[in-house]
Amino acid sequence: MSAPLIDKYRKMATFDWRKLKAAVEGEEHVRLKAEVVAKMKSEPVFQRDFRVLSREEHREVVHQRWKKIVEWGLFKDPYSDLENFHALTETLEAYDQGTSARLFLHGNVFGAAVKSMGTERHKELVQQIENNEIVGAFCLTEIGHGSNTAEIQTTATFDNGQLVFNTPDVGAIKCWAGNVCKSFLRRFRYTFCLISAHSATHVVVYAQLHVGGKNEGFHGFVIQVRCPKTFQTLPGITIGDMGSKPGCWQGVENGWIEFKNHRAPLSALLNKGCDITPDGKYVTSFKSASEKQSVSLGTLSVGRKQIIIFRLGIIAKGMMACTFASTIAIRYSVARRQFGPEKGAENEIPVLEYPLQQYRLFPYLSAAICIRIFQKTFVEKFTEYMMRVMMGEKSEELSEFSKEVHALSSGAKPVATWLGVESLGEARKACGGHGFLHMSRLNTLRDDNDPSQTFEGENFMILQQTSNILLGKVSSIGTINTPMSTMSFLNSNPSKFSSWSSNPVDDVLSAYRYLTYHLLQTTSSEAKKLKGAGKNSFEVRNEIQVHRAVNLSVAYTEHTMIDWVQQFVEEVEDVTVKRVLQKVLNLFSLFLLERHLATLYITGYASGGKFGEDLREKLRHAVAELKPESMALVDSIAPDDFILHSALGASDGRAYDHIMEEFRKYTNEQPKWVCDLAQFLQKRSQTSKL
Ligand SMILES: Cc1cc2nc3c(=O)[nH]c(=O)nc-3n(C[C@H](O)[C@H](O)[C@H](O)COP(=O)(O)OP(=O)(O)OC[C@H]3O[C@@H](n4cnc5c(N)ncnc54)[C@H](O)[C@@H]3O)c2cc1C
Question: Among positive and negative, which fits the CA dihedral 448, 449, 452, 453?
Fold first, then answer.
């Protein structure tokens, strides 16, 4: 039975949360997710408590869950059953990113790398991967090189018809082994491969290829690293674990690998577009060194699309983080009562009543909904693009499409993951002391989501990809016409602020257009100035980042997010749902824009304090407007309690009961060391009497 207070808040809503959920997620998706959850609930291996597991225990439980999902055979072919596959992926990601990583991410990257860079001679291996007869990992990052992958130092040297792998120094030791992104699976066949520390039998490894004394550059190879029966490493290979990691990543076997004269057959070279003849001649069909590098780095053809698919998946991680943060903190804020207009515990009010608490939490509630709508729209547009690629289209418009998708995904991944991690930190603080308990899950979830800001392109690094593409458009201002129309507004100089309209989102979009346009202009003229002063292109690119290129990428991305969500809301048929979604978007857009207030003034969008005062007043109003809707909105986004797994955030609103249920598990405990304490105290008391 729910607590009366949470029900009171539920009744304040002006809409049916189920209808909103169906409108945002799609009825079929909601139904399929419920099916997966029901299956997991029925299986003992998916039951969990709040105990902190050791590294060994954590990995074993993840392994058992992985096995169960494999046995269920839930996702034989994502191509033929994409809806089911999306439902499974989202549910597993919400349940535990470590389990989903073990299931999907590393294996798919390994398998896809073999498929995209390999040829006919790797067919048998591909078959083994698909049959789960071997276990694979992906080794690109080294101790000394992550972002700058082209400079990795591991070597593969042709010698007597074989390849000899070496790690020249400590910086060249492979680490992290694996790769990340769930939605990669949405389009590509997958395999179940584990990470290298304990389980991998094979790895895709990147190394500098030396043939006949010449370095032919960075190449991909697939090699066996362990015997699949004994799991002993092969000669010349040392593998270890990377030690403890926070959150769910403790359950993931990220490992390091060192090579010392490890010999592998020539077929280890993933030889699409290049090869070594048995007598030791390097041959290539690549026209240039950079093309060769592009294929090896996986940034051409399928590879570039894979990166975008990874990023689309990571945007969803940001959405999920905001979902967990707002669900747990808003439900708890109704159960938690502190102070009141008059003295007496009976007069205390739920902390959700405080405008400051609302101001800290509701923006992330709106972000959870808006990022989901944006991500879903982006996936649809990307699918349309992929269909054209698969149909073999080769047009200038399609290559423009590719660039635009790349620019937006490189901006949206940072914006979404930063918001996600930030939301969990704020939610933890908004839940006070109890928020710090492991059973709130907020700190653990924060740890789970933390690396989403770094992997698959460190956020600040990939924002540079967005700004580079935007800066490339400066010379064609007036004729910019991109397939998704995210840049068309840059064709004309947007006007300064004059007055507010009746629609805050229209006003926010106008401000963003001005902001993006002016950031593009100032970044571009700064670059010209630096070039004129004799700086080289490396220096120029670095010196235009702070306050300029980074802000440009963020502004462009946020403008598109808001614009697409607005278009979605306009299409919603149910009037009550549409009205509340509009309130959600009002808040999301004002919340994001307020962060750019200083730059808006600096770039001359407005002068005097009134614009800023008005913007903030509108933001406070948007927050207040969401209060009566907030609990139903939470219900519309909240995962099932089994998946949410938070003593503070359960849907029945009985946070104290759940907290005490956990506390009581530790009633009158007598750990072994208290005997030692008793003896110590006794000894002290005897000594003091002497
Ligand atoms: C949980 C987790 C799982 C991972 N899994 C894998 C995996 O499976 N396989 C794999 O190969 N790797 C994996 N990685 C590694 C990951 O891909 C890299 O850590 C990531 O690419 C960032 O690279 P880096 O660590 O070298 O960061 P660095 O490049 O060293 O970045 C450090 C700092 O320098 C800044 N910086 C660097 N260059 C510039 C520049 N030009 N301009 C401005 N600032 C700059 C960055 O913004 C950052 O703030 C994983 C990492 C984590 C945390």
Answer: negative
Q: How far is CA 323 from the centre of its chain?
A: 13
Instruction: Spell out the residues 6+ positions from residue 35 whose beta carbon is closer than 8 angstroms to its own.
Output: 87
Atom of ligand 1 nearest to the CA of 451: 53
Residue 423's Cβ-side half-sphere holds a number of Cα atoms within 13 Å equal to 33
151 lines ligand 1 (CB under 6 A): no
Nearest-angstrom CA–CA distance, 471 and 391: 31
Spatial distance between the Cα atoms of 629 and 52, rounded to a whole number of angstroms: 36
The rounded Å distance from CA 419 to ligand 1 centre is: 19
Query: Is the shortest distance between the CB of 451 and ligand 1 below 6 Å?
Result: yes
Query: In a mutational test of the pocket of ligand 1, which residue from 100, 173, 176 has the highest number of ligand atoms less than 8 Å from its CB?
Result: 176
Residue among 192, 191, 195 nearest 240 (CA): 195
H-helix segments, 479-609? 504-532, 537-543, 550-571, 575-594, 597-602
Residue 422, helix vs strand vs coil: helix
**Residues 6 or more apart whose Cβ sits within 8 Å of residue 384:** none
Question: What residue's CA is closest to ligand 1, atom 39?
Answer: 461
Active-site residue numbers?
456
Please indicate whether residue 176, judged by its CB atom, sits closer than 6 Å to ligand 1: yes
Sorted by where each starts, the structural domains of the chain and their CATH numbers stand as 43-297 (2.40.110.10), 302-479+503-637 (1.20.140.10)
The single-letter DSSP state of residue 65 is H
- Between residues 234 and 253, which one has the greater pLDDT? 234
Nearest to 333 by CA among 112, 630, 570: 630
414: amino acid identity, one letter: P
Among 360, 469, 460, 357, smallest CA distance to 417 is for 460
**pLDDT tens, 418-473?**
999 999 999 999 999 999 999 999 999 999 999 999 988 999 999 999 999 999 99
The alpha carbon of 458 and the centre of ligand 1 are apart by a number of angstroms equal to 5
Q: Tell me the per-residue pLDDT of 496-552, one tens digit each, with 9 for 90 and over.
A: 999 999 999 999 999 999 999 999 999 999 999 999 999 999 999 999 999 999 999
Cα-flanking dihedrals φ and ψ of residue 139, to 5°? -115, 95
439 neighbors 521 (Cβ within 8 angstroms): no
Of 454, 468, 543, 546, best ligand 1 pocket probe by most atoms within 8 Å of the beta carbon: 454
* C-beta of residue 169 within 8 angstroms of C-beta of residue 145: no
Q: Is 149 in the pocket of ligand 1 (CB under 6 A)?
A: no
**Burial (Cβ within 10 Å: 0-12, 13-18, ≥19) of residue 213:** exposed
Let me know: does 601 contact 36? Beta carbons within 8 Å.
no
Which residue lies with its CA nearest to atom 48 of ligand 1?
458
The answer to whether 141 is a known ligand-binding residue is yes
Nearest atom, ligand 1, residue 245 CA: 1
In 84-161, DSSP assigns E strands to 136-139, 155-159
CA atoms in the 13 A half-sphere facing the CB of 240: 8
Question: Which pLDDT score, from 0 to 100, does residue 603 have?
Answer: 95
| Tokens coding 513 | 């257009």
Please provide residue 572's backbone torsions phi and psi, each rounded to the nearest 5 degrees. Answer: -70, 130
